[in-house]
Amino acid sequence: MKMTKIIFLIFLITSQIIYSQDLIKNILKTVDQVNQELLNITAPSDEEENKIGEQLDKEIMKDKKTVNDYKFQIKIIFDKIKKQTDRKKINYRYSIIKDKDFNAYTIAGGKVYLLTGLIDELEKEEELAFVIAHEIAHNELKHCIKKVQYAAKASEINPLLGNLVQIAYSIYHLPFSKEEELEADKRAVELMKKAGYDKEGAISFFKKLQQKEKQYRKENKTEENDFISTHPNTEERIKKIEKM
Ligand SMILES: [Zn+2]
Predict the structure, then answer these.
(1) Per residue in 15-50, is it b (16+ CB within 10 Å) or e — as a string?
(2) Residue 75 belongs to what domain range?
(3) What is the pTM of this model?
């Protein structure tokens, strides 16, 4: 082969590589642009909260195993509570996670995670209705999105969707304050009563939680949102609900 022919061939191959790298770069740029949407984190709308929640849920669900309906008619119970909510634009929904912990949690944008380890211990529909109502109450009272707002402000990041999702992911498992828990209990009892459930379900749920707490203390299990937590005191929660 002549030298000029070889040089031409090398040129052709190199330009081909550069071209495909540019193509990949462009594709990544488009993905990035979708993720770089600017949100108003000082006063997020319900739509913006839903957007954060959708992306955050994708991250959370990456390493989770789920089951369809489990032990109770969960969809029916969930829908009964959801019907009583005030934040109609929030995308309230749930997943049942295969996990032995006695726990449940929720994130901004209304997704609720119910763990099979918790459902296994429940006997009555009213008990599960309270758990669902309590998680929904955290979002009715904007506790989840406020946590994201505070964290975003504290870290002084640009309020881009991707950044906010990352921040939300790093804090979603952290417990709420004692005041927020008591506030969520109160709203939950209101929601369950409106949905036609007896508040006794809340009390018997907390009695089951007390039993689990003894076990978790022995195991030195660390605090985790939303029910594996040392505050507030479960006895205090029961007393407050009895007076409602
Ligand atoms: Zn809670």
Answers:
(1) eeeeeeeeeeeeeeeeeeeeeeeebebeebebebbb
(2) 42-243
(3) 0.85
pLDDT tens, position by position, 32-88: 555 668 888 888 999 999 999 999 999 999 999 999 989 999 999 999 999 999 999
In a domain, 221, yes or no: yes
Cβ atoms of 241 and 189 closer than 8 Å: yes
**For residue 163, how far is its CA from the centre of ligand 1 (angstroms)?**
25
CA 37 to centroid of ligand 1, rounded, Å = 30
- pLDDT, one tens digit per residue, over 184-242 is 999 999 999 999 999 999 999 999 999 988 888 888 887 778 888 766 789 999 999 99
Ligand 1 center from residue 238 Cα (angstroms): 14
Task: Tell how far the Cα of 131 is from the centroid of ligand 1, in angstroms.
Answer: 9
Distance 231 CA to ligand 1 centre (A): 10
Looking at the structure, do residues 159 and 196 belong to the same domain, yes or no?
yes
Higher per-residue confidence, 128 vs 25: 128
Round to whole Å and give the CA distance between 55 and 165: 6
Q: How far apart are CA 53 and CA 55, in angstroms?
A: 6
Distance 170 CA to ligand 1 centre (A): 18
Question: What percentage of residues in the chain have a pLDDT greater than 70?
Answer: 84
Say whether both 10 and 129 belong to one domain. no
What's the 164 CA to ligand 1 centre distance in angstroms? 22
Centroid of ligand 1 to alpha carbon of 146 (angstroms): 14
